[in-house]
Amino acid sequence: MRYRLIWTERAYDDLADMWVAAEVFTRGRIEAAVNHLNLELQNDPWQVGESRSRDDRRMAFLGPIGVVFRIDDKARSVRVNHVWRYGK
Predict the structure, then answer these.
(1) Model confidence over 52-76: pLDDT tens digits?
(2) CA 2 to chain centre
(3) In angstroms, what CA-CA distances link 85 with 7, 43, 46, 73?
(4) Euclidean distance between CA atoms 79 and 48, whole angstroms
(5) Which burial class, exposed, middle or buried, applies to 38 when counting CB atoms under 10 A from its CB (0-12, 13-18, 19+)?
(6) Which residues of the chain have pLDDT under 50?
(7) Structural domains counted in the chain
(8) C-beta of residue 40 within 8 angstroms of C-beta of residue 5
(9) Which structural domain range is residue 55 located in?
């Protein structure tokens, strides 16, 4: 059973800011990372990234982006709360 994926407004804003500031090559890498992340979070979010201070909060690094997200098993949902660019 798939999880419902929710990107918060803040996460969308973070992603938009990152996209606008990125070079063309990096935009392709951002797009690929986000597409991969979306699929993985919908299918098996507990296998994505690593846990943080609480059991439901996780962090992952994919390509040029990092994300913080929360998993709600009861609601079968994943909420992406924050996205940032890391590395080059």
Answers:
(1) 776 778 999 998 999 999 999 999 9
(2) 16
(3) 16, 24, 22, 28
(4) 13
(5) middle
(6) none
(7) 1
(8) no
(9) 4-85
